[in-house]
From TrEMBL:
Organismal lineage: Bacteria, Pseudomonadati, Pseudomonadota, Alphaproteobacteria, Acetobacterales
Source domain of life: Bacteria
Family note: Belongs to the UPF0261 family.
Ranges in coiled-coil conformation: none
Span of domain UPF0261: 3-174, 183-399
Record's protein name: UPF0261 protein CFR72_05025
Amino acid sequence: MGRVYIVGTCDTKAVELRYVHDLITGQGVPAVIVDVSTAHRAPGPDDADTIPPTTVAAAHPDGTQAVFTRRRGSSIAAMATALRHFLCARNDISGVLGIGGSGGTALVAPALQELPLGLPKMMVSTVASGNVAPYVGGSDIAMVYSVTDMEGLNRLSRRILANAANAMAGMASHLPPALHDPRPAVGLTMFGVTTPCVERIVSDLDDTFDCMVFHATGTGGRAMERMADSGLLAGIIDVTTTEICDYLSGGIFPCDDDRLGAAIRTGVPYVGSCGALDMVNFGAPDTVPAHYRNRRLVEHNPQITLMRTSVAECRAIGEWIGDRLNQCRGEVRFFLPEGGFSLLDRMGEPFYDPQADHALFEALERTVEQTPRRRLIPLPYGVNDAAFADTLAATFRSLFNGENT
């Protein structure tokens, strides 16, 4: 067993860090406190099992002087960089538990994002009840809301910190057995409205590939691309590129400007499509921006409102995707489902709009520089039709096997 690294600023959170440390070690799990204070402080009597901030700061590419600047903002940013380098160089980590307020969370979370997926990582934070996407990113960080501010211990903070400590001790001491799966892994993107397509592809490929499905909610796409960049995916079947709609139109599940970046950088076989490009996601109906209130809207559930993409928006989406596909040097096949982009984009359904769909197809065909390795392929099916899914699965299998299909 390695050690649990408990990360926080001892100049402001020493009591909480020590409390968590003692609970974890009391269960027989080795642990060490990592002090990321950005002000010099004299070591205390309880610091024998504490890694001092100078040690962490020394991991910064520009040395300790880049961290201890006496300017809070730059010091926190530099210590975050140092912590990322420090933790990524360790080979004895069985889990990481961070504790912090807004500044501490901003300092610790970037380092947790860089650690391997599957390694236990948790952040107890005063900001964990809001938008945690910037802190979690595409990683598997467990965020725990502290409820009260962390200024010493009280009857509630003791319980919440104990819950976190016990959870981390359990995760660190009960790692699942390593299982060898000889099948290469392939990443797929899915939304509720593209589920039939992805389910059929998984069924078609499961005998040969370890199919890893990512929910296309912005972070899902980033997680998939991170795995591809890490060499953990042998290919991508990007059925559901809907995050691009939210990115371009201000929805709540956006990708960033690096979407498709992993396919560009790695050259892994890429099979893509227009899944759910007929919609932008917003929250509850009263959160839809005023300038979109007169658009075609569908209440997906009480917390999610969908807006149909317009002709102009579909044109912009097609141009954006086309520009990214042009940068890919590996095998690329992008399929155009002429029968609709989702369960809602079919005749008789609320998002049925052949004119908007055609605008997207036209933009792609105008933008993409087609080559023998980069092709647009129209199909006379909807994205959820069995024939469409089977074609994507067969195409990916052929590309993976080196067949030019």
